[in-house]
UniProtKB/TrEMBL annotation:
Its cofactor is FAD. This is FAD-binding protein. GO terms for molecular function: cytokinin dehydrogenase activity; FAD binding. Pfam families: Cytokin-bind, FAD_binding_4. GO terms for biological process: cytokinin metabolic process. It comes from Legionella qingyii. Belongs to the oxygen-dependent FAD-linked oxidoreductase family. SUPFAM superfamilies: FAD-binding/transporter-associated domain-like, FAD-linked oxidases, C-terminal domain.
Amino acid sequence: MLPILKDLQNQKIKCITEPRQLISYSCNYGGPFNPPTLIVEPESRNDILKIVKLANTYKMPIAVKGFGHSTGNQHETNKGILINIKKLNRIHSLKKTKNDIYCINADSGVSWRKLINYCLNYGLMPYVFTDWLDLSLGGTISMGGIGSASFRYGIQSDYLVKASIVTKFGQHYRMDKTHHSELFNAARAGLGQFGIITSVEMTLRKSPTNCTVYKQIYTNFDTFFKDSFELIEKTRVDAIIAHFECNKSELIKRRLGSDYKKIYHKDFSRSKWLAILEVTEFSASNSSPPIFKDCLKESFSIKDYLYRIPPILDPGLEKQDSTHTEATLLFPYNQKCLDLFYTLLNQLSYEQLGFGTILFIPLKSSVIKSPFFIKPQSTYCFLLGILSRNMNTLASKQFSYLIMDFYKKALALGACRYPCDSLKTLSWPNHYGSCWEEFLKLKKTFDPNNIYSLGFSIY
């Protein structure tokens, strides 16, 4: 028996050591990874305190897993302890402050789906929402959390106003912008390097009742990028997201639905790729955005809109799919970066991407406030999430080679990795740049035994 196991069981903390379960728990959206030595299922913050104290005593690394949607080895523990956070799933309070600001307090293991469902009952919603809601609050706040409204509101970690964290050797801190502010800033988009967030308090905004979604196809990508960045300056636009799809009818139908032929013109057939831009308005309007010349228009209740399943996560595909390789990068918006992307599109084949897609979200750098969220040094930037889904081993290897070459060239042009993907950061000091020394100092202060989130291989 593991020495730590008896101590954990004495503390009445559920432990899992059965090999098949360890292997099962080690899987995430990207696939199977090296299993931990032990899985624990805490039911409270006090359980987390006990686990962290014992992990330090036995010098065992720790990683936290929520819903397992990342595609890399972020929750690998190097023969350590994997903490399944899902039982920390209570919403504690919803309040209105003296300044008429709404705030919600919840455990870090609560899913965004559960939180949004709760908030909509009160006519409220988060400022930033991801396109897939089965993610934990603690997970996206530790990563940053980019969504289709990020061009205006920044990232999810920007809306954290208070949090509880277990750090160091099992100490608990309640932190905000004035109390333990160094730790507060480090925990937001800090990749879980400084401790385990156990509860969060975030600001909310009022939600609309309905919304309208407009979709348009582009084959001229210079025009696509120009239109996208013009649209994020329009006050009537509330969300914007796009996908580059291989020009295959089954993929276009998946993205646009059975009405896709209404805007799919014959001359599109000459293009290898199509860009499908989706713009959402929360306010009522009788006309499409002026930039759109020929688009599909669809109305939703706000709940149906937020709860939509992204086509890339279609359950029918999940059953036949085995490999999810992803590269997620933030680019400065300039012609050199666009040319690099166009070169990738020319090289990338349908077989290599499989049923995957390339996600695009335009952003304004200035609205992102979390200090350790690394972004390009440019006024405008954009996220590209390149996701491959295929079962062909050769095509998968070819994709990985292409993407690694693309990644290296992107870094040389000022791009940054958004590390929820399956890439390996080539140099963390280069990634953090001028923030690196501060990052190291805080790591030594709050994790002197270097036990938190080793899957990122930062140290």
